[in-house]
Amino acid sequence: MLIIENLDVSVNNNIIIKKLNLIVNYGEVHVIMGPNGSGKSTLSAVVAGNKKYNITNGKITFNNNNLLNLNPDERAKYGIFVAFQYPIDIPGVNNFTFLKVAINNIRKSNNLLALDNAHLIPLITSKIKLLNMSDDLLHKFVNVGLSGGERKLNEVLQLLLLEPKLCILDEIDSGLDIDSLKLVATTINSIRNKNRSFIIITHYKRILKYIEPDKVHILYNGCIIKSGNKILVEKLEEHGYDWFAKQQY
Description:
Elements: E1 2-11, E2 14-24, E3 29-33, H1 40-48, E4 54-62, E5 65-66, H2 72-78, E6 80-83, E7 90-94, H3 95-109, H4 117-130, E8 141-142, H5 148-162, E9 166-170, H6 178-190, E10 197-202, E11 215-220, E12 223-228, H7 231-239, H8 241-248
Parallel strand pairs: 3-10, 3-11, 6-9, 9-10
Antiparallel strand pairs: 1-2, 1-4, 4-5, 7-8, 11-12
C-alpha cells in the first residue's frame, strides 16, 4: 500500500529525516515510537503533503501512485487520512459544514452521488454518539473551544466518516483520559480490515494495551533504527531510546 524509499527531508536546511525506508502492506497496523524531535510528526506531515517540508531525496508511493506529484487534497481523495498531533481551530466553519464538504468531495472522487442533509445528519449523529460526544458538536466551529481530548475525538469522528484506506494517527492518545483512550482504541479496532492500514505514532505504550500492532518501529534522529513486533515496546521501556541507538551505531 505505502512504500517509502530512501526518504530525506529537511526544513530550513536542517535535515529532519534521513534515508528512511518503510513499507506498510494492506491491513497492517504499524506503530512508530521515538523521542521528541526524532521526525515522527514530520513524517506524517510529509505523507499528508505539507509543503513546509523539503524532500531532497527518495520517493513515496501509495497504491502505485507517486505521492510526491499530488497535492494534499488529491492524497486525501486517494484515501490518505492524517489525524494531527495538534488539530487546529477553524473559526467560522462549523463541524457539519466541514464534514459535509469533506464527505461529499471524497464521494465525488469515487464517482458516488453527494449526500444531502437528510442523509448526512443521521449518519454524522450516529458516529458522534458512538464516540460519546455531544450532538451540539455539529453546530460548533471546528475545534474551537474544545479540550485537547475532545479535539482528538473530533479527529476520530472524521476518520469514521471519511473511511480512508491509510490512517496516520499522530499521537492520537495524547490528552485522552483512560475512558477516552479505550474508546479510541476500540473504535480503531472496529474499523480494522484487510483493505485499511494504520500508522500510529506515539510516545507511550498505553494505547498498545488495547491495539495489537503488526510491526513496531523506533525512529531516532530521523532514522528507523529498529523494527520488530510488540515485544520491542517492552525492551524500549526497559532500556530507552539511547540504548537502541548505541546498538545500531
